[in-house]
Structure formats: structure tokens, C-alpha cells
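Subject: sequence -> C-alpha cells, single chain

Hey, anyone have a minute? Need the predicted structure for the following. Not urgent.
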Amino acid sequence: MVLASLLLATGCSEGGTAPPGTPAARGSAAPQAPPSIRVSASHCGEGWTHPHTGDQTLMVANDGDVSAGADLIDVPGGAVHAELEGLAPGTTRTVHVSLGPGTYAIRCEIDGRDPIAGPPVTVSGGGSGGPATLPVTYNDLYAPAQAYRDYVAGGLKTLVARTRTLAGAVDAGDLAAARAAWLPAHLAYESLGAAYDTFGDFDGEIDGRPAGLPGGVRDPGFTGMHRVEYGLWHGESAKSLRPAADRLYKDVRALRADFPDEQLEPGDLPLRAHEILENTLRFELSGRADEGSGTTLATAAANLRGTRATVGVLRPLLRTRYPGLAGLDRRLDRVEALLKAQRHGGRWTPVEDLDPPVRESIDGAVGDLLEGLAPIATICFPRRTQ
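Reply:
Had a minute. Here:
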């Protein structure tokens, strides 16, 4: 179990009396609710009475006048055992935790203010509590983000070189060479992974699909890798395809020139580890992204490389925070092996030609991998601690 599963708050109640007709309203005995722990700028963490070890449900109430959040943290280390977000004024919510002996506090995050730590509470008794995770800050994410920028910069250099080869083959009228050059160029782009959201309009221009365009594959707005793919595998002449290939090469060079000025938001990096393969499952493994080459499984393998690169730069933060990291590596290896099995020399099995059991195995393995990647977004989400 990791922080992602510890942050789930259960139950939400607004202050007020019980409605007529309920047992409490009729005067019958009702279970005594534990006192609420107060969350506000003036009373942060007050009201935690009779603390004890073991499984328990804590009531957390925002008695201030602005929205707030609350973390249950170790003192003095600051590791987070539970987290509540978006607690509206006048709202009480419950959170289930398991605590071992030690000292804890509630850290209040009041909108518009720096975090406030409430009074320390000592919990005594036997047993051990649930896991806790040390928060990740923006400063912690700076080095991983810089490492990923370096990875992308190197990938863009490869992309430019391979796209030059592709465009050159089209310009020379050698469509067989162009078809051979298309996949390496496309995979160079797809392996960039977590940077796609940083590329802005370039992403649509270089790797956009015809879905949603009024003219479909004939729409002037359909450009880039998939436009060239469509032409190469649908009988277009080199002459008619030359403008699309030249435009692609131009856009790729423009992206590389622009990238040093683009901002890779460090806080987005943990999200991308999961999102890359979500898109893979949706577009590549469904075959929806195929414009004729039948190589979406190769694209999925490139996306997996991008995912590995993202996890790789975050690994120093995950080693001490994510108990499931070793299992995640095994899941990555399993998906890679299943995809590689569909490569036969320079040819990849098209998705629609997969035997149903094989396709189900790949889809299931990717779904399982997505479950393993999902906690990274929560564990490495940057949090203010002071």
C-alpha cells in the first residue's frame, strides 16, 4: 500500500442537526461520534483528543471561512499518513488511518496562506501503523525535470536526422526508401513521451490524426507523421506527398529550435508516467492510430521507452517512497517482452492480425502496468511543506 491509497477520504457531512424521522431525531441512542479535529488558520489541529494506536477514523472539520486541506504527518519527519483536499468551510469529513506509537500533527493548508502545523499529539500503545510517504517538493523535482529535458533534447536530435532521411527519400521519388524511413522517424518522436504536452501546437502538427477534421485524411489540417504514413501506404505519388514530407521536416526542425525556450513543468512529470500509456492503450493498441503502416505495436514499444525514461528520472524519489517499485519494473519488462514478440525482423504484426489470446495478453499486461504507474502521480505530486 502506498500514499495513493492512503489519501482517500471517506464520508462527508455538512454541519447541522439530524433530519426529522431519523433515529437521532426521535431521541433514540446513536453512536457517539469522535470529536472533530479543527482545520482553520486560527485552530489548526486542535480537538484531537484521546489519541490511540491502531485502525481508526478521524473526523476533520473546517471551521474557518475558506477552503482548506489537511495532512496527517509524522513529527518531526513530516511523512504523510493521510491527506484531505478541498475541505469546504463548515464541512466535516472522515479519514481512516492506522497509527503506530509516535508523535503526529495535523498540517493545515489554508487557501492563500503558507501551511500551518498544529500542536504535536503523542500516540502511545503497541502495534505498528500503516505506511507513510515523505512529501515531494518542487525542489525535489527540479533535477528529474532537468534530466528529462536532456533526454528529450537528445531525442529531438535523432528525430531531426531521421526525418531528414524520410523527407529526402520522398523528394528523391524513392517511395520504398521512404516507407523504410518512416517508422524510425515516427518512433523517434513517440519515444519522447512525457514532453508531448510541452510541445504545444507542434504536437498536433507533427503527430496529429485526421479524426475530427472536417475533411478527414484530405483535410489541409492533417499534417505530420500520420499524413505521410497515409500517403505512403495508400498509393500516393512522391510528387503529391512531397509537400507533406517537407512540411514535416520543417516542423520537426522548428520544434527542436523552439524546445530550449519551452517550459517542462516539473509538477507534470509524475502525471505523464501514467498518461503516456493511457494514450497508448486508447490509440495504439486499439489500432485507431494506424494510417496504413500496421505499426502501432512498434509505437506502443516506443511509448513504453518514453515511460521508462520518465520513471527513470523519478526513480531517486521513488526508491524510498514507493514499495511497489520492484513490481513496477517487472510489469514494464513483461509488457516490453510481449510487444517485442510481435516484431519479426523489420516487420511488426498489425494489431488487427493478432490472435485474440495474444491481444488480450498485451491489453491485460498494459492495464496491469497502468495500475502500477498510477500511484506515481500521487507520490510525486509536489507539495508545500512550509
